[in-house]
Structures are given as C-alpha cells and as structure tokens.
Design goal:
By secondary structure, the chain is α+β, with helices and mostly antiparallel strands. The protein has 2 helices and 3 strands, in the order αβββα. The protein has a 3-stranded antiparallel beta sheet with strand order 1-2-3, with helices on one face. The protein starts with a helix and ends with a helix.
Length: 71
C-alpha cells in the first residue's frame, strides 16, 4: 500500500540509503542504494535533472554514495 511504501522510504532515509544534491534549494540529483550487506552495497537510481547534467553533479552524488558505503 502507499502507506507501507512511505514507511519503508522513511526507514531507508534513516539508514542513509538516499542522497540528494540541491542547487539553490532545488533537488536536482538523487542517488540510492538498492540493497546492502555489511560488506557490499548496490547503487542504483542515480538521476540528474536534464538542465543540470554535464556539471559533475552525478559524479558528486556517486562519490558521496561510495564514500558513505565504506563508513
């Protein structure tokens, strides 16, 4: 149900499975873990608004995901 999906999403945010990049308060890029274990993580769902592509924003999101996955 929608309520269950929302609850799961909030739990994933708490576990730091979603990252965002904002420009002037506007969310322009996101990245997420799809799955994780103690030693590995699967990254998926990295998206950047077309108006903000080719500026290194997706790379910054990926670096944050990878750095945090090692923490």
């Amino acid at each position: 149900s929608r309520g269950d999906r929302h609850k799961r999403y909030l739990q994933e945010i708490e576990r730091q499975w979603h990252w965002g990049y904002k420009v002037s308060g506007k969310l322009v890029s996101i990245g997420s873990f799809n799955a994780a274990t103690k030693s590995t993580a699967q990254i998926g769902g990295v998206y950047t608004d077309a108006n903000f592509r080719r500026q290194g924003i997706s790379e910054a999101v990926m670096r944050k995901l990878m750095n945090d996955s090692y923490s």
